[in-house]
């Protein structure tokens, strides 16, 4: 099951925090409140991020690794822990497999090697390794700095290995926590909006699960996993995929390498877009289905980064003509000849509870009363689990052992060259969100529009000043954007957001090299050139 | 992961529920409140015990999600053996305490505190405080007519002040600060409860954009060097507004509607839902009037937010109603 | 932490001033020069360690104030970067203390006392003249000051001249021209001779003095001279006795705190010594700001090693390795002499890692106040040392459990601590034999106002008020006494009918008065008592920290009410105003957080009730 192993309350009481590839201060501000409670209670905070972000400014130690060298760093931390004999031998023996293989795999990742690959001084890496290993409790949290890479899953696995190595999983205030970037990323996965999963993380290729759903739904389900987003675009290129039904996404602007994305979408025989706005993607669609805003104009649930299923409620009527997502789907079904009855969120939820064991105990009544419940929640007497994997500490072990997964450092796909000498990385700022479709609606005094952030040394070398508009080009496109000098960067690094795509289409620049395992694009590492205009 | 069965099948259920470590709870202590003998946890404050047995203790600077600063002194109670009254909000119960919550001494202090506030602060948008004034029969007008508003309260320095005539009573009246599109700060309504400073500080936001500056009656909430909010460290999370008990801090939307006479609280609905932005899952309470969101707050008793939000959750709702304006 | 900075960058001079106390900046992240070789890929700045230097905020602000006469925004920004203090918080701190200014000021300013002891001997008249001659806006080279703690040589003034070298000194302001003279030559104002000390201690040379026998006689800068007069005998004995025995002696001596609260010192030390939380701190409260009080100043100026020795013994007894000496900002000479004594003691091995050559580490750091009466309140003083606004904390928890930096702390007044060497030398029992059974030991009295010989007096506890006034030569010109203020602005007024009251804790308590800090301020019949009450009311309004409602607003309402009575314009009737006053006094006493608010109405109430300062028709008495 994929989900944050811990509850937010645990980070308030943990002893060591590794915030890896995450500027939670700006991207997950309320989680950061919890994190700072932990810091104020004495937790040591390590921020691993190429930029010295506002989050990193709180850290006891900032490790400003070079972009895409996360595995080199994580493996070096693992090697150092083993070299110092600080690994949790009892836990490793009790609940894991593959330690020896892992140990062999990380052997070349000496501190010196890591310093060379990441730029982070060896003594700093060593200190973090020792603190994390020795701390009674410790948590690793990450965001897209880990996952928006061509080797996203390997990046995650390198962190999982550290938690296994030190026995920092399955206990209170110990664990691994991806901070979800969007409000229902977790819930979408929970509900089976993944190419290989049925609701409740039940793999479509396991007959037992599939048959359960087939029986309940009275239909057959393809027995093989479907395509992830990247594969879908590949299939568009080969015309294998001809029709697309987009619900609440703006892939035209949110996908890396926007020129390519546009060509693919334009080549479809049919594109249906269901959205609360007429987005740029919707403008290309053959059919647009205006939707109610899921979070305030309709009923349902979402799941957050601590696996808490929470109710969303209708607070207002949608605009004329817009309909609730469920209503639209029911109506479609009817037109296709299946009457699913009256669309009702709770009825659908109760069907899920029958099919997904981890959600079985979450009645609407309980969700209301408890203000959300955390999965797994197996029955109506079950309070939901505060943290995952406690089974690994049970004597004897409950269930299978967990495997170490050795992974190797693999730098970003797009290399820096004299022609494209700058590394462009992307991220969010506090008052804005993704492609800005929602946040453009309000006036934030913090908003500075799009900028190309450069370090002072690079600005000087290029002879550009704050506010000057420059041309930024990658192998895929060019945009014009104003310079902002930012001392949280160092030479060779540039930073942009994706928030103002209509003004500055950052995704003209980004690369669609994707992780084969997750389908995530390497938004965090493109190679660009910066030129003065005129 | 490499173990295929693990990858394809969810892990089995743990035999025992994962739990937070159990903390030692001190044994309950016997105390007496208004003649009632009862047992209470010595971790509890007098206020918490009072509330648990239905004694309605007034509070202004206290809030469940903030560290008690015990500055307003409206919650004071009489404790046998104590030379002075003690603040219920922060004082923890101890074995053998004998407490009076409505003695003449208590009533006098509460009444005087409320008179002091009522005579120096505009409480027109503080229904709770006004209710307390009525309950304790406070007469804020007996200190004489209010002095004319001061212009330069923010520039006042500690040290000697100009001695008053005494024929008017000094107030904190001063011009309203409107320097951005999201907040309005009307410190004529400020009772200096410190809540906004706490919410901006370590109790929640940790931005430290505002502080108490100056001293004594000239103490006021201020940014550094009194710069406008857009020049300050403010990140517009609105958590200061969320905790303000008097309406001194107000969302611009509410301020404008009140000014236009269109603010109609009885006609508003409040619906809890979840923020549509990042994956933290913050509960938003949408205050809706005429199918329009007019204010966003968050409940204090939700573990995720504990009442606090960020700028997107607090203000990022406009896109929804922008659709309402343009028929599609 | 992620801080936001705005406004001008520091000038080289501003950097230098701040660096003079904080040392050079090591990193661009802390206001220094960017060096990508060392911090391009990693830094440890911003975390717990960087944030732990907040206590240097006041020293850094002092550095800027002392250099420029105000704290320029560039300096403020640089201080904030250096110490990782949010600018808004630094602003809150800087605007709390009246010796700092965040707006431009002349480099040199004379602070002229118009407080009660000074105003009755010409201080107020001088201020009125100065308003005419030198103006009274922010650019004026002088300003009114609350009590400067020099009541024995009133009317008093203090010159502070900022610059590359700070020059400051206290002096008697004889006429308005004295201000110009002080501005012209700030360094030469203070009389630093032994003679000056003798003038302030009229008992000089009298046998039998225990606490002040060295003042005016022994070179305050000389460790040898101190040792030659039995100095450091007590510390030697204390180290030999051991900490527990020291506390036992202090307990047996029945030494009560001399700062005003009269808490048994032995009990306080015992609680700190036994506290399991470490480290422990010792704090000496030398923020002597109670109007009419100047004893601690003279002890520090005249016998600084006695305080160093007393603090060292206290540190030894309470297992504290660090002692803070918090001296009010208005005492430049005392601070200078204490610093010299501390440095000398350290050089002699009497402070430092192995005090007296044994395994006992103790050192003393001086922290300067910046103009805030409230910082004499112990928890406000802790906050001030910690780099915060001097706002008192709610008690409990008490300092012996949660004190400075949240650690167990013994905090004692200067006078209390200089009794300690005496106790250890003579033994607790012998000490307990001095004075009365309820008030043991010698006591310092600050006698000022309309007496022939103002000054610091030492007597064993127990003389009557009449005895002390006689010792000071009686009322100046033999005039009848109108009123006596006991214990300072936070004390009470008594009439001449109370002259036979014994000056002990129990004696004053029985008479409904207080000994407080030992202030005896005498007013003859020429005085306008209503004016004195007006000043006291104004003082409390100025000095309230502003935290709690009863004090913040109560002090304002009290002053307004008093002014109405003085103007003969009561709301309703005189009786109604008196009834209202009593309610204001009661809420302040009952519901204020700290002693300031709790006592802010005492003196005025005592005078209103017993001395009829404002007749019912409103005309002056």
Return Rg of chain A in Å.
24 Å
Subunit arrangement of the protein: heterotrimer
- As for the number of domains of chain A, it is 4
CATH topology of the largest domain in chain A: Dimethylsulfoxide Reductase, domain 2
The CATH architecture of the largest domain in chain A would be 3-Layer(aba) Sandwich
**Biggest sheet architecture of chain B:** 5 strands, mixed
Give the low-confidence spans of chain B: 1-5
Number of structural units classed as domains of chain B = 4
Strand and helix order of chain B: HEEHEEEHHEHEEHEHEEEHH
The strand count of chain A comes to 21
Summary tags:
heterotrimer, A: 534 residues, alpha/beta, Dimethylsulfoxide Reductase, domain 2, Rossmann fold, 4 domains, five-stranded parallel beta sheet, B: 328 residues, alpha+beta, Ubiquitin-like (UB roll), five-stranded mixed beta sheet, three-stranded antiparallel beta sheet, disordered N terminus
Describe the structure.
The complex is a heterotrimer of chains A (534), B (328) and C (621). Chain A is of the alpha/beta class and 534 residues long. Helix content of chain A is 31%, strand content 17%. Chain A has four domains: 8-178, Dimethylsulfoxide Reductase, domain 2 (3-Layer(aba) Sandwich), CATH 3.40.228.10; 182-226 and 292-396, Rossmann fold, CATH 3.40.50.740; 227-290, no CATH class; 422-532, Beta Barrel (Barwin-like endoglucanases). Chain A has 20 helices and 21 strands. In chain A, a hairpin with a 3-residue loop joins strand 7 (197-198) and strand 8. In chain B, strand 3 and strand 4 (86-87) form a beta hairpin. In chain B, the strands form four sheets. Chain B has a five-stranded mixed β-sheet, with helices on both faces. A three-stranded antiparallel β-sheet of chain B has the order 10-11-12. Chain B has a two-stranded antiparallel sheet with strand order 6-9. Chain B has helices at 4-8, 46-52, 104-120, 127-135, 195-200, 239-243, 252-260, 311-315, 318-325; strands at residues 29-33, 36-40, 76-79, 86-87, 98-100, 183-185, 211-213, 220-222, 249-251, 269-274, 283-289, 292-297. By secondary structure, chain C is α/β, with parallel strands linked by helices. In chain C, 42% of the residues lie in helices and 13% in strands. In chain C, strands 11-10-14-12-13 form a five-stranded mixed β-sheet, sandwiched between helices. A four-stranded mixed β-sheet of chain C has the order 3-2-4-5, covered by helices on one side. Chain C has a four-stranded parallel β-sheet with strand order 8-7-6-9, sandwiched between helices. The model of chain C has no long low-confidence stretch (mean pLDDT 95). Chains A and B meet through helix 1, helix 3, strand 8, strand 13 and strand 15 of A and helix 1, strand 10, strand 11, helix 8 and helix 9 of B.
